Amino acid sequence: MAAKSSQTMTIPTDAELVQAQADLWRHSLSYLTPMALSCAIQLGIPTAIHRLGGAASLPDLVTTLSLPPSKAPFLGRLLRLLSTTGVLASNEAGIYSLVPLSYLLVDGVRIDGDASQTALVLAVTSRHYMEAAMGLADWFKKDIAQPVPSPFEEVHGAALFEESMAVLDPECDKLFNEALAAHDHMGIGTILRECHGLFSGLQSLTDCCGGDGTTARSIVKAYPHIKCNVLDLPKVVDKASSDGSVNYVAGDMFHSIPPAQAVMLKLVLHFWGDEDCINILAQCKKAIPSREAGGKVIIIDIVVDSSSGQMFETQLLMDVAMMVYTRGRQRDENEWSSIFAEAGFSDYKIVKKLGARGVIEVYP
Ligand SMILES: C[S@@+](CC[C@H](N)C(=O)[O-])C[C@H]1O[C@@H](n2cnc3c(N)ncnc32)[C@H](O)[C@@H]1O
Q1: Which residues, including other chains, have CB under 8 Å from residue 356's CB and lie 6 or more apart?
Q2: pLDDT at site 1
Q3: What is this structure's pTM?
Q4: What angle is formed at CA 123 by the lines to CA 179 and CA 319, rounded to 5 degrees?
Q5: Could you tell me which PANTHER family the record lists for this protein (predicted)?
Q6: How far is it, in rounded angstroms, from Cα 102 to Cα 86?
Q7: Same fold flag, 32-108 and 187-363
Q8: What residues contact residue 43 under an 8 Å CB cut-off, 6+ apart?
């Protein structure tokens, strides 16, 4: 027999009901915010404003973007939403300008040598990603044995990293790879400037899952004395173009990680479940010397922090994104700490929080 609730819900007042209705509109229509952002990128609005000197009026944009004049009033409404949601700034004279967020969406602008972030927005707002999110309720109802495939795998028949994705859906595979490169390449410059002690004392480093070696090359450029290995799967290493500054190793991190004073896992562990993370970290521990000899694992990943205001919501969205698209998750400090302990590490330190991410040193 169902337990009787001792609490009865108070009937909302009229004022609360109309507010609730407005809140529901906002919640259920807020998918139009990323759609407007994607539309702005496809039309080239941030790039046009940049080329017009960083500020532009509606008529300037209609002309520069070669849009039919009949669309001007509609573009004005799009620009108003983009300004209200913080993608652009606007003033009373009807001039639109770039803010740091839209600066990241300007074609050709390089931040620390990184590509703009347009590829990421275009991928996550594509039908491939949206369809996976739309399959979430069906996914919840299915009782599937471990390891649980993501809603993305259920809908598209392959995981994001799987080679078969290139055959099943080449367009989706291309979108994902471009998005991943834009996402991963950004930020190492800031880490090098903000976290001086992270690499300076190291003689050697293995960038585990280091992809095409972009991050490792930036580190070696800043610290030429560091001997740097880049470990990735053979299919990735085979395609990497080497300039001789780093040593590429084709392999599987679950089997072996090239030894070095430190192993770095930058934006890796959030793709994996807890058990896999423990196995990866256990392999890292085998690859490094004792703490006294300077051994450490460097992790760059989100540290979910409920006291971080709006950043907390971003971190939760990134967590649900991991649930929808991968088998991974985002973790708070307690969750990180127990994974480190289970993998046999004795201590850790959160060196720095940068945006939504943290830089963690983990000691054997
Ligand atoms: C999200 S990226 C890592 C990002 C990279 N560390 C960066 O910050 O630029 C994931 C990478 O992990 C690699 N990878 C996946 N499974 C692997 C494994 N078992 N062993 C080694 N590399 C792996 C993929 O090929 C891909 O290049």
Answers
A1: 302, 311, 314, 315, 318
A2: 45
A3: 0.90
A4: 80
A5: O-METHYLTRANSFERASE (PTHR11746)
A6: 9
A7: no
A8: 65, 67
Domain spans of the chain, in order of start:
32-108, 122-182, 187-363
Class of the 32-108 domain? mainly alpha
- Which residues belong to the active site? 270
Q: How far is the CA of 224 from the centre of ligand 1 (A)?
A: 24
What is the CB-side half-sphere exposure of residue 34 using CA atoms within 13 A? 14
Averaged pLDDT for residues 297-306: 96
Token pair for 327:
């088998």
> Tokens in use for 79?
């620009």
**Tokens 């006294």 sit at which residue?**
292
Chain length of the chain = 364
Rg of the chain over Cα atoms, rounded to whole angstroms, equals 23
CA-CA-CA-CA torsion sign (337, 340, 345, 350): negative
Question: pLDDT of 209-221, one tens digit each?
Answer: 998 898 999 999 9
Q: Which of 163, 233, 327 gets mutated to test ligand 1 (max ligand atoms within 8 A of its CB)?
A: 233
Q: Is the pLDDT score of 78 beyond 80? A: yes
Q: Is the pLDDT of residue 47 over 80?
A: yes
Question: What's CA 243's distance to the chain center, in Å?
Answer: 27
Token readout for 194 is: 């903000």
* Cβ neighbours for 55, distance < 8 A, ≥ 6 positions apart: 49, 95, 96, 97
Coil, strand or helix: which one is 64? helix
Q: What is the pLDDT of residues 105-151, one digit of tens each?
A: 998 776 665 668 998 999 999 998 999 999 999 999 998 777 788 99
284 lines ligand 1 (CB under 6 A): no
8 Å CB contact between 13 and 19: no
- What is the CA(288)–ligand 1 centre distance, in A? 19
What amino acid occupies position 11? I
**ipTM (interface pTM):** 0.98
